[in-house]
Amino acid sequence: MKFSPKNLVRILFFLFSFPAIAASQVATYEQLVKAIRQTRAATVQRIESAVRQEKVREAWETGKLIDEHVLQFKERADYGKRVLDKLAGDLGTSQTELSLMLQFARAYPMNWPANKLSWSHYQALLSLNDPEEREAVAREALNRNWTRDQVREEIRKRKSRSGGSEAETWPTVPLVAKPGKIGTYLVIDWNGKKVYDLGFANFYEIKGPVPEPTNPPAEDLYTYEVQVEDVIDGDTFWANIHLGFGIWTHQKLRLRGLDAPEIESAEGKEAKEFLKKLLSPATRHSSPVMIKTVRSDKYDRYLADVWAGKIYINQELLDKELAVRVND
Question: Which of 36, 71, 87, 206 is the most buried (most CB within 10 A)?
Answer without folding.
Answer: 87
